Fold:
Amino acid sequence: MSYTGIGADPNAIAPCEKYDHIVFLKNVVRNPNIQIGDFTYYSDLVNDPRDFEKNNVLYVDDLCQDRLIIGKYCSIASGTKFLMNASNHKIDAFTVYPFKIFNVKGWGDGSRSIDDITYKGDTVVGNDVWLGYQATVLPGARIGNGAIIGANALVTGTIPPYSIAAGNPAKVKKMRFDDKVIETLERIRWWDWEPEKVASSVSILTGGNAEELEKLL
Structure:
């Protein structure tokens, strides 16, 4: 996305002068199987946030070619981890021990195939999602637009749009809005707007007036 001078520069690495522990992830991730939308940021208070790909996306392996897909305008807190499918063991065999990865006589040649793991598919995070401090997202999880994931939560399966989920495993505690507001938010898909339109609507988007939201349709 080219920068128009309206709002933050989507091509910046460190977009916030006051907080140098925040980076726009799209501009620091290089693995083509990790796809990050514009304005999604990661904040790390311990490690260099530019090392997100190394420290926070674990078990990326050519064996699986699974993807981590994160939408636009997401807020990812310090210590959040994404485990990819190569972390899985085969669970329908009589043992979960990965004999084949050890290059020793009688066990295997040091390699394994896709049949040697439990494959869950791509991991997908929607738009405008907030992942809390040290949340962990397991392979194949699907998190809907606008969802909030609590600190230290363990996410498996599907989290509905605009829900608040917490715990181990993460379960929906409440919905953020009523069905009508959620339907409106899903229809307007403000994260796909041009930066100028987002900027002109910030006061509404950061408020809670449902009638004003309806006008954005």
The chain has two domains: 22-84+122-176, 179-217. DSSP finds five helices and 18 strands in the chain. The first helix runs from residue 52 to 55. The CA atoms of residues 165 and 173 lie 5 Å apart.
